[in-house]
Amino acid sequence: MSLPKSIPEVSFFRFLNHANNILKNPLPFHASNFQKLGDIFRLNIGLGKSVLFCRDAGLLQHALQKNQKNYAKSYIQTKDLAKYVGKGLLTAEGEHWQRQRKLIQPAFHKSQLVLLLDTIQQTIFEELKNIKTEKPVDIFPVFNDLAFQTVVKSIFNIAISDADIASLQHTTEATQKMLVQELRQPFLVWWFNLSGKTKKHLDLTQNSRTILKRLVEERKQSNSKHDDLLDMLLSATYEDGTCMEENQLVDEILILFAAGHETTSNALTFTCELLARNPESQAKILEEIRRIKTESNDIMHWIKNASYTKIVIEESMRLYPPAYFIDRVNIEEDSFNGMIIPKGSTLLFSVYEIHRHPDFWTNPAEFIPERFLDENTKFSKNYFPFGAGPRMCIGNNFAMYEMILAIIALVEQFEIIEKKEPIQIKPLITLKPYNAVLEFKSR
Question: What is the pTM of this model?
């Protein structure tokens, strides 16, 4: 009988020695550990605490699907993130999560999303007007505003003041930055609390909740229908016939803001960065756009038939997955391929490393959209841009529709001037682009 495999360890001293670099960008540190130690290692972070870092797609699938009942989200999401965004789908656990998922899932069904396409399309057109031609433009703020505006107007398909939108967006982005500091400098959490820095960000969240409660109340008082996500959430009922309470509804909206705009803006920016470095792909998208628009004026027809545009976005999310880490904690002791995982272990799965694992991906660092023409790759067990299993991102179809329409509108209007410099990244809660400066020319 073979003995259980031991998990290699990275010392607290090595972690502390690289603390400044980890704060700026932890990916090179993790990559070097994976290269030296294999697909899983234990990182000691002090005070007797440790984290298991993993790039084994099989173990990720085991945790998210095959044995998902034994794996819960970690303290990072259920407590640290939840204090800023509440107990919505992203941060809830157990029966509460199951109840909310069952209630909200129909709002994101493809048949319901069709009702939002005109709003999404119009928002994209308006936001792309902010792109200036014949001069360098940092494209990330443009896409960040586009994605946030799309989420806001898909939820509240009514006139919402610029001041309210600006306040909601500022809070969403400021609290994320604060959370990053708390997670990467856990030894300073006492100072963040003592100095009032944490309270300042919690106050921002409370202000957002006040704005959202006012908007929800105005909708209820109006007795009008707008076929937006808020209508769907307000009309949704649990099995006992009751509706969501106000505080829970606000939690879910805050989650949609946090998860629904950040990942999309990142993915759109990285896609444009890749198109700037691959002009032949840009030309193929333009050819596809002209073809599908001669076939029909129907927006859903464009989405369904923009097959090359879709695989370009899929390849972009392989190379630069916005949700680049997935966390879980095992409730009871578990085993996988002869390796014992002690009860209560915190696991951080590196989607970034899984998407670039040389054992599965041919030329993993290269941009090759055509690899997704292979159905075996397209539905791969090594590809997790939206997670997997019961907790797979509820808004994956919404995000793909929005991104396809945004790239169609962008490439139809503008040529992205070729760029040679390497793409820069800034890993925070999500994998963000950095210094995404591009030049555009009107077509």
Answer: 0.92
